Amino acid sequence: DMVRRAHAGGVHIAFGTDTGVSAHGDNAQEFALLVRAGLTPLEAVQAATVGAASHLRIDADAGRITPGMPADIIAVGGDPLSDVTTLEHVRFVMRQGVVYRAE
Fold it and tell me: First CA to last CA across the chain, in angstroms?
């Protein structure tokens, strides 16, 4: 309820965790929780990208996919703007141009 009220009040929401180390992939469940709290799927994705970078004050160098900017990119099997739970099922990660797949 706190996230819903904050979002409705105009507070910028950033996706992140302060729980330390948790099981790989579990944090992606936060996207669905953000949508349930009233964010659109796009706003939930932006909270993890441009929003998080802005809150960390690194948005000049991170948080967007644009020429010349470093980026770690994930591929999923669907459209996360239609169903954010697709972000829980990463097919591969691309980091510095190298594709990494789970085995």
Answer: 38
Stated as kind and residue range, the H or E segment containing 42 is helix 41-48
Question: Closest Cα to residue 102, out of 29, 25, 22?
Answer: 25
Q: Sheet containing 72-76: which strands, arranged edge to edge?
A: 72-76, 90-95, 98-100
> Could you tell me the pTM of the whole model?
0.84
Mean pLDDT, each 10-residue run in order, the chain (103 residues): 89 78 74 94 94 90 86 93 94 92 82
Show the domain range for 87.
2-100
Residue tagged 């994705």 (tokens) = 45
Cβ atoms of residues 41 and 9 within 8 Å: no
Bridge partners, 15 (sequence order): none
| pLDDT value of position 79 | 97
| Domain count for the chain | 1
In degrees and rounded to multiples of 5, residue 27 shows phi and psi of: -65, -20
